[in-house]
Write a structure and sequence with these properties.
10 strands; Kinase-like_dom_sf; alpha+beta; single chain; 12 helices; Aminoglycoside 3'-phosphotransferase, Chain: A, domain 2
C-alpha cells in the first residue's frame, strides 16, 4: 500500500462507519489506524538493513509473526490478521475478496494516557505495587521464554554499527561532536565485546540468552488499574529478540533514566531480580553496556522517524544518556 491507498482506506465505509475511524499515525515502518475500540496496524512496503517489508508476502508473514509473538505479552490486545482489499474502487478490511493488496494486524485499542511513557510525560507516577507487578510479570515471561542454544556476540557490534547509516542526520542535529561521539561509542563497544567475550558464553550457558521481547521501552508498557499489557514485541528479525534478559530490561531502564525516575528503576530491578531468582544473573558493568546500546537505539529511532513530532529535547535527552553510560563503561 501507499499513502493514497491508506487515505482511501481511512475514508472507506468499513473504517468510518463500522469501526469509527479517528486518525492515522505514521511511523518509519507502519501506518497505525486508530478507531473507536480497535487499532489496525499496516506495515509499509519499506526495506532497511534491519527489516524488510518490501513484498506483500513478507508483510503477511510478519503480520502473522507479530500476532503470534505478542500473544506471549498481551494476548487480550492482539486479535487477528485481516486482509486489506481493493475492488471496484472500494477499500475494505477483512472479507474474502481475491483482491488483496495488503494485511493489517487488528488490536484492541488501549487508552494512550496509560502507557508508561505518557504517564511520566505528564509528571505522574505509578504505584509501588504496580511497578513491582510489572517487574514480576516481565520476569515470569522471561523465565518461560525459549532458551537460545546459540548466541553470537558480534551481532551486538552490528546492531550498534547501524547507527552509522544515520551519520548525516546525527551531524545535522548534533554537529561534529555528535558524529565523533558515535565513532567513539562504537570503538568502545568493540573493545568491550572483545574483552568480555567469555562473559557472553557464560551467560549463554546459564540460560540468560532467550527469545524475549526485544523492544521493551516505556512506550510499549500499558498500566491501568493494575492491568498490565506489554505490546509491540519485535517480529521482523529474531536476532533482535534472541538476546540477554539483561539487554531486554535495559530498554525500560534507559527510559526510566530518561524520565528521571531513578527510584522506580531501582525498585523495578530489585523486584525483577527477586522474581527471576537466578544466581549470577545481575552484572552492573554489562547492564551499563546494554543501556548504552539501548540509548543509541532510541536516538536512532528518533533520527530515522522523519514523520515524528517529538521535540528536540527528546533527541538530546538520549544523546546525553549515551555519553553518561559510555563514561560509566569507560572508567
Amino acid at each position: 500500500m501507499n499513502t493514497r491507498d491508506i487515505t482511501g482506506l481511512c475514508r472507506s465505509p468499513t473504517l468510518k462507519d463500522i469501526y469509527g475511524y479517528e486518525e492515522c499515525i505514521e511511523t518509519h515502518s507502519a501506518w497505525i489506524l486508530l478507531c473507536d475500540a480497535y487499532v489496525f496496524k499496516i506495515k509499509k512496503p519499506v526495506k532497511f538493513k534491519f527489516l524488510d517489508y518490501s513484498e506483500l508476502s513478507k508483510r503477511k508473514f510478519y503480520c502473522e509473526e507479530e500476532l503470534r509473538l505478542n500473544s506471549r505479552f498481551a494476548p487480550e490486545v492482539y486479535l487477528k490478521v485481516l486482509p486489506v482489499t481493493y475492488h471496484d474502487n472500494v477499500y475494505n478490511l477483512g472479507g474474502e475478496s481475491k483482491h488483496i493488496i495488503d494485511y493489517a494486524v487488528k488490536m484492541k485499542r488501549l487508552n494512550s494516557n496509560y502507557f508508561l511513557s505518557n504517564i511520566y510525560k505528564r509528571g505522574l507516577s505509578i504505584k509501588k505495587d504496580e511497578l513491582q507487578q510489572l517487574a514480576m510479570q516481565i520476569s515470569s515471561i522471561h523465565k518461560a521464554s525459549d532458551i537460545c542454544s546459540l548466541f553470537n556476540y558480534n551481532k551486538l557490534k552490528y546492531r550498534l554499527r547501524q547507527v552509522l547509516e544515520l551519520k548525516d542526520s546525527i551531524f545535522k542535529v548534533f554537529g561534529t561532536p555528535g558524529t565523533n561521539m558515535i565513532e567513539t561509542i562504537i570503538a568502545t563497544s568493540n573493545r568491550f565485546l572483545d574483552i568480555h567475550k567469555d562473559l557472553f558464553s557464560e551467560r549463554l550457558a546459564r540460560h540468560f540468552i532467550r527469545n524475549v521481547h526485544g523492544d521493551l521501552h516505556a512506550g510499549n508498557v500499558f498500566i491501568m488499574n493494575k492491568h498490565i499489557s506489554i505490546i509491540d514485541c519485535i517480529e521482523f528479525d529474531p536476532t533482535y529478540r534472541n538476546i540477554d534478559l539483561l539487554d531486554d530490561i535495559a530498554a525500560l531502564l534507559v527510559d526510566l533514566d530518561f524520565y528521571g525516575r531513578a527510584d522506580d528503576a531501582k525498585m523495578f530491578l530489585t523486584s525483577y531480580n527477586k522474581q527471576l531468582n537466578a544466581p549470577h544473573f545481575f552484572n552492573q558493568t554489562l547492564l551499563n553496556y546494554y543501556k548504552m546500546q539501548r540509548a543509541v537505539t532510541k536516538l536512532s529511532v528518533y533520527l530515522l522517524d522523519k514523520t515524528n513530532n517529538k521535540e528536540t529535547e527528546y533527541g538530546y535527552g538520549y544523546y546525553t544518556l549515551i555519553k553518561k553510560y559510555h563514561t560509566l563503561l569507560d572508567t
